[in-house]
Write a structure and sequence with these properties.
By secondary structure, this protein is of the alpha+beta class. It is 47% helix and 11% strand. Strands 1-2-4-3-5-6 form a 6-stranded mixed beta sheet, sandwiched between helices. Strand 3, helix 2 and strand 4 form a beta-alpha-beta unit. The longest helix has 19 residues. It is globular and about 55 Å long.
Length: 240
């Protein structure tokens, strides 16, 4: 696991985004919505999936959207800032469910953010995800400014210490603390190597993912769609 935890900050822009859009498949007939459980909206129905992500919305939605994303990927951040609100409105209809799976393309900073993004449980997963993307520019500035001696200092540390050091360097510890997760709880999450290994396993198992964001609708990859208009077209083709 050491190789995924040591990272040069200048690699932060690598392997993000794509070029071409859409699948160009024949549009499906519009699908029906569904009523959420009493007293809830579908956006409040959030659970961890067997595949290692978190899903928001109707678990039986006829259009199932999965995103593999990196919280330090600028293209993912741009998509979230543009697309999260209209995507949420689709989820509210019960026609579409949205599952996010962390893809650790940028090593230790992604590990730290993904772990802390889960630290508050299902109820805070998507709010923290959205807010991390909203704050992404400040985070990337901190990571890009990381001095070489920082990496020299941590390179012989054990993986849990490396993750915690990157969380501190990126500002993630203060970020989650300001949103109700005590530092002691956050550090406990960062030291959870079982969770880290689980997240690494999600990344290593996603052999179809070449860059982030990668979107999958009903089991089919949407080729190189990285913007909301591109994804919206694909969702409409699927009947949303």
């Amino acid at each position: 696991m050491r190789s995924i935890l040591i990272l040069a900050p200048l690699a932060l822009l690598a392997a993000c985004g794509g070029g071409e859009s859409g699948n160009g498949s024949t549009a499906a007939a519009p699908v029906a919505g569904a009523t959420p459980p009493a007293g809830q909206q579908w956006t409040q129905v959030v659970s961890e999936t067997a595949e290692g992500g978190y899903r928001m919305g109707n678990p039986d939605a006829p259009v199932k959207l999965v995103e593999y994303g990196s919280r330090t990927c600028p293209a993912c951040g741009a998509f979230a800032r543009e697309g999260f609100e209209p995507l949420t409105k689709l989820v509210e209809t019960g026609k579409v469910s949205f599952e996010f799976r962390d893809f650790l393309i940028h090593g230790a900073p992604d590990v730290a953010s993904a772990v802390l993004g889960r630290c508050g449980g299902p109820g805070t997963f998507f709010p923290l995800l959205e807010q991390m993307y909203a704050n992404q520019s400040a985070t990337l500035d901190k990571l890009q400014a990381t001095p070489p001696e920082f990496q020299t200092r941590i390179q012989n540390m054990a993986p849990p210490q490396q993750v915690a050091e990157w969380a501190q360097q990126a500002g993630y510890l203060d970020f989650v603390k300001q949103r109700g997760i005590p530092e002691s709880q956050a550090r406990q999450c960062l030291a959870n190597m079982e969770l880290v290994q689980k997240l690494v396993g999600v990344t290593e198992g996603a052999t179809e993912v070449q860059g982030t964001p990668t979107f999958i609708i009903n089991g089919e990859k949407v080729e190189n769609a990285v913007t909301w208009p591109q994804l919206e077209t694909a969702l409409k083709q699927a009947g949303a």
